[in-house]
């Protein structure tokens, strides 16, 4: 399969304009009428039909004739729409290889620039082009992870036929689900960083979250020499998260990265919930059970989930303040799904 960067580089400007126009149209209807594309893309009818047929050939756009000529995009094209926006905003300078394919995401490595002094803080002289070129040269590349969310890809497809008859449900549910997942993950990362060891959030576009590349290896792949120490570091992080009124709700050995220096980074936050969630405590317990049982199984550690729970609640000093915190911290709560990687 062609890689995302290659597909992106082969698109011309008109094709990108059309993908964006179809995406906007799909907020209102499932199949965007060809007349809307003619009217809204500001391209000539000839350019529209030429580009559309190329996009259909590339399987980036799907076409229907019934009950009218209409077009829609799938995830592959939606990724290109978000990537194009991130490139235009200079967030992503170059896109690299696939980092991981999860159940609900596709993650690519990429490069951005380390933030330089914002233009507003510069003196007039410093704004000269020469200076900014110098600054660009001095800028250090920032390794990124670009996570394209895939919520709704599997869960909505099989119920689609039923849903299409229900007018009160959103059309193109996958677009909504993926956008919501990305927005929630980005919001949570911003709430947690830098107090909690999570990837630094950089940008959000459509269903894509751009964050700093954390390095490290997933906990489940490792054979640690100091498992007790690692478990303790993880529990300390969970305690800080809980202290901020948040539960990860999908914590496991798959979502903890361990760096060579022993630092850990907790990733994968779209399903996080706040204290206000009716199952917050149960979800915290489930998170801790996932982690503790990994250490029990793999390293034969004599440590129970209750010990972990007592540590986290005690450490966060939240045993009695949970009630007080309710309502202060807002995270939209969604339906819980379990068993994700
Ligand atoms: P999913 O919900 O699909 O499991 P994750 O957020 O866990 O999504 O990301 C999938 C994989 O991508 C991870 O297992 C990890 O290998 C990689 N990954 C995700 N975010 C980062 C990051 N910030 N730095 C490095 N690798 C990452
Ligand atoms: Mn994951």
What report would you give on this structure?
The strands form 4 sheets. The protein has a 5-stranded antiparallel sheet. A 3-stranded antiparallel sheet has the order 1-3-2. Strands 9-11-12 form a 3-stranded antiparallel sheet, with helices on one face. It starts with a helix and ends in a 16-residue tail after the last helix. Helix 2 (13-25) packs across helix 5, helix 9 (227-243) packs antiparallel against helix 10 (280-299) and helix 9 packs across helix 11 (305-315). The protein is of the alpha+beta class. It has 12 helices and 13 strands. Adenosine-5'-diphosphate binds at residues 99-100, 102-105, 107, 145, 147, 199, 211, 213-214, 218, 254-255, 267-268, 340-341.
Quick overview of this protein structure:
With 341 residues, this protein is an alpha+beta fold. The chain is built from twelve helices and 13 strands.
Topology readout:
Elements: H1 4-10, H2 13-25, E1 32-33, H3 34-40, H4 45-57, E2 61-64, E3 70-73, H5 75-88, E4 94-101, E5 105-113, H6 129-138, E6 141-149, H7 160-164, H8 173-192, E7 201-205, E8 208-212, E9 217-218, H9 227-243, E10 246-247, E11 256-258, E12 264-266, E13 273-274, H10 280-299, H11 305-315, H12 322-325
Antiparallel strand pairs: 1-3, 2-3, 4-5, 5-6, 6-8, 7-8, 9-11, 10-13, 11-12
Helix pairs in contact: 2-5, 9-10, 9-11, 10-11
């Amino acid at each position: 399969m062609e890689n995302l960067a290659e597909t992106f580089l082969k698109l011309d400007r008109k094709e990108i304009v059309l993908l964006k126009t179809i995406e906007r149209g799909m907020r209102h209807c499932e199949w965007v009428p060809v007349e809307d594309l003619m009217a809204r893309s500001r391209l000539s009818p000839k350019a529209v039909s030429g580009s559309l047929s190329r996009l259909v050939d590339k399987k980036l756009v799907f076409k229907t004739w019934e009950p009218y000529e209409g077009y829609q995009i799938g995830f592959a094209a939606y990724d290109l729409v978000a990537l194009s926006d991130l490139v235009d905003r200079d967030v992503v300078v170059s896109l690299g290889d696939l980092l991981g394919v999860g159940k609900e995401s596709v993650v690519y490595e990429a490069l951005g620039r380390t933030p330089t002094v914002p233009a507003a803080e510069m003196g007039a002289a410093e704004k000269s082009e020469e200076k900014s070129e110098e600054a660009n040269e001095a800028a250090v590349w920032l390794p990124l992870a670009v996570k394209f969310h895939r919520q709704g890809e599997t869960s909505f497809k099989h119920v689609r036929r039923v849903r299409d008859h229900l007018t009160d449900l959103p059309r193109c549910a996958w677009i909504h689900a993926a956008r919501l997942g990305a927005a929630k993950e980005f919001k949570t990362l911003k709430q947690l960083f830098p107090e909690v060891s999570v990837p630094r959030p950089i940008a959000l576009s459509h269903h894509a979250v751009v964050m700093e590349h954390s390095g490290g290896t997933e906990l489940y792949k490792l054979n640690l020499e100091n498992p007790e120490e690692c478990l303790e570091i993880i529990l300390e992080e969970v305690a800080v998260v809980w202290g901020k009124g948040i539960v990860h709700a999908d914590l496991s050995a798959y979502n903890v990265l361990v760096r060579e220096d022993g630092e850990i980074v907790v990733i994968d936050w779209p399903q996080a919930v706040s204290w206000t969630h009716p199952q917050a405590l149960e979800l915290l317990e489930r998170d801790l059970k996932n982690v503790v049982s990994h250490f029990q199984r793999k390293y034969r550690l004599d440590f129970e989930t209750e010990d972990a729970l007592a540590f986290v609640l005690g450490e966060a000093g939240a045993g009695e303040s949970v009630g007080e915190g309710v309502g202060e911290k807002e995270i939209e709560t969604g339906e819980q799904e379990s068993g994700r990687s």
